[in-house]
Amino acid sequence: MKKIAIFASGGGSNFKVIYEKIISWDIPAEICLVISNNPSCGAIDFAEQNSLPTFIVNKTRYPDSHSRDIILMQNLLKTDIDLICLAGYMKMIPTNIVAHFENCILNIHPALLPDFGGKGFYGIKVHEAVIKSNAIESGATVHFVDNQYDHGPIIAQRKIKILDTDNAEILAERVLKAEHELYPEVVKAFCENRINWESGLPKIVEERKE
């Protein structure tokens, strides 16, 4: 049973999907901590409604960046976290946490990385860029986190074809559905120790069929 920390800044729809998979016993894990920089976001509201421990970390509460990073790490360590899942978290993860939790931090991005990723590519801006580029497909990417935005080894992707009827808003909705399918699958694979490394790249080992 893995212990998960969720990092979210907004509504936390991917967080909610993962939570539902956990309480239905599909993912062998428990969410032990929900962290946000935004105390009034939907993710924190959902966590509190479901009696999940929360922690707010931002410049207002912890003005000194060094102290902020240390306090955040302390909260993760005392909770004995195995896996961190970023679910729409809008801040860079501190380097001390990335180093300590190497290959144990997952992120979901609403495009097919390495395209349309990096600083500035978030939310509707991603989908606007995809539409403007005349790409023929988009989708969702789950990857391990390193010290760059939307970088780190890619674990899995879910592709969708871009339709003539798509605009940025419609594409965003369609990609979000792909995210909600893909992210729990990768979290489940991690929690079942089914992510292996081959030639320096992570690969999901399929579930054994009984």
The number of distinct β-strands equals 9
Structural class by SSE content: alpha/beta
Q: How far apart are the termini?
A: 21 Å
**Can you give the mean pLDDT?**
95
Q: Count of DSSP helices? A: 6
Task: Please give a structural write-up.
The protein is α/β, with parallel strands linked by helices. It has six helices and nine strands, in the order βαβαβαβαβαββαββ. The strands form two sheets. It has a seven-stranded mixed sheet with strand order 3-2-1-4-5-6-7, covered by helices on one side. The chain has a two-stranded antiparallel ribbon with strand order 8-9. Helix 2 links the parallel strand 2 and strand 3. Helix 1 runs parallel beside helix 6 and helix 5 packs across helix 6. The longest helix has 24 residues. The protein is globular, with a radius of gyration of 17 Å. The mean pLDDT is 95.
Protein topology:
Layout: E1 2-7, H1 13-23, E2 29-36, H2 42-49, E3 54-56, H3 65-78, E4 83-86, H4 95-100, E5 105-109, H5 124-133, E6 137-144, E7 154-161, H6 168-191, E8 195-198, E9 201-204
Parallel strand pairs: 1-2, 1-4, 2-3, 4-5
Antiparallel strand pairs: 5-6, 6-7, 8-9
Helix pairs in contact: 1-6, 5-6
